[in-house]
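Q: what sequence does this backbone want?
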């Protein structure tokens, strides 16, 4: 076997759980928090399960998932680069803006990723600059599938509302979410 650097994502929602510093075990804060913590673990497992089924260079890869210390973890690729949010923040701070040709190239690459994702019946439901990772060679990679929804699943794993990026249908649980949900958010992101 070969060595590789990975990222291990732990389900540790501070609002619902705490770590026993002597044992490393994660416990719910109280009885009500136990329900929310269990839901967080379920959501995390489902996020990892969805990601593990996807195979596209523009989507973060999940290699493994396991339970330990009273919570769950998943192992994913370690990506180099920075988020589009961080890139644009740095550019704006130095008086720069993204050239139209680079923005157009980024748009088409992201549309290719979404085309694959939607063909697999998965909607990201949280497209925003902070969830688009720009690698050193300039290629984008989608991260954070915590709000992702599978086409047959009626509700997202997490309901996400981000000012400026959330399409109107995401504010109503009864409205249909689909490819248009991600396209709207991508348009807002590129704007």
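A:
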């Amino acid at each position: 076997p070969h060595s590789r650097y990975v990222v291990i994502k732990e389900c540790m929602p501070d609002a619902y759980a705490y770590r026993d510093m002597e044992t490393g075990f994660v416990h719910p804060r109280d009885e009500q928090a136990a329900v929310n913590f269990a839901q967080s673990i379920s959501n995390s497992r489902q996020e990892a399960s969805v990601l593990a089924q996807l195979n596209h260079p523009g989507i973060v890869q999940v290699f493994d998932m396991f339970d330990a210390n009273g919570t769950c973890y998943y192992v994913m690729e370690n990506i180099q680069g920075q988020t589009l949010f961080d890139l644009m923040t740095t550019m704006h701070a130095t008086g720069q803006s993204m050239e139209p040709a680079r923005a157009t190239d980024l748009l088409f690459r992201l549309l290719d990723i979404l085309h694959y994702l939607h063909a697999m019946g998965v909607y990201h439901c949280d497209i925003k600059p902070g969830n688009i990772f720009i690698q050193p060679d300039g290629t984008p990679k989608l991260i954070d599938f915590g709000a992702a929804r599978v086409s047959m699943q009626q509700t997202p794993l997490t309901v996400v509302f981000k000012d400026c990026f959330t399409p109107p249908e995401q504010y109503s649980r009864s409205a249909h979410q689909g490819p248009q949900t991600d396209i709207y958010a991508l348009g807002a992101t590129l704007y």
